[in-house]
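Session log. Operator J.P. requested a structure for one protein chain; no other inputs attached. Running the standard single-chain path with C-alpha cell output.
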Amino acid sequence: MDMSQLETRSPLANQGRGKLRSAPDSTLKLRRILVPLDFSGKSRQALDFAVPLAEEYEGKVFLVHVVEPAYACPPPGDSWGLVHPTRTAVDASREKLAALARQLVPPDLLGEILVRTGQAYLEIVAAAQELDADLVVIATHGYTGLKHALVGST
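Structure written below.
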C-alpha cells in the first residue's frame, strides 16, 4: 500500500454519515413571548425589548406578574406563618399590569395578562410552560434594598 491510499481524515469524521437528516428549519419563530414584570424600571426595559421582537416575528407579548405571599412575624409562641395575598393585592396588580400594557404594548401584539400568586420563579416557569412560550424576556435586576424586602424581586 502506498502513502496516497491512506485515509488522512480523523476517525470521527465519518460518524453520523449514512444517516439522512433533514436540514433544521432555520426560521426562528417567536410566536409567544412571555415578559415577567415586577413594575421596576428594569422589567419595563425587558418589555421595551420584547415588543419589537413580537413585531418582527409576528408574535404576541404575554405579561405576567407574580404576587408573592408575605412571611409575617407571628406573636410569641406561634410558629412562622404564611400570609396569603389578599384579593385586593391581586386585583391592584392586574389593574397596574393592564395599564402598563395599554401604555407600552400595541393592542395587536398583546396576548394575555396574567397575575399569579406564589413564588415568582416557580410561577414564571409554570406560565411559560402553560403558554408554550417560545421566549421569556426577563430583566436581570429588579427592586433592591428595602423595596426588595417589602415588594420582592426576581
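Operator note: The CA atoms of residues 110 and 137 lie 15 Å apart.
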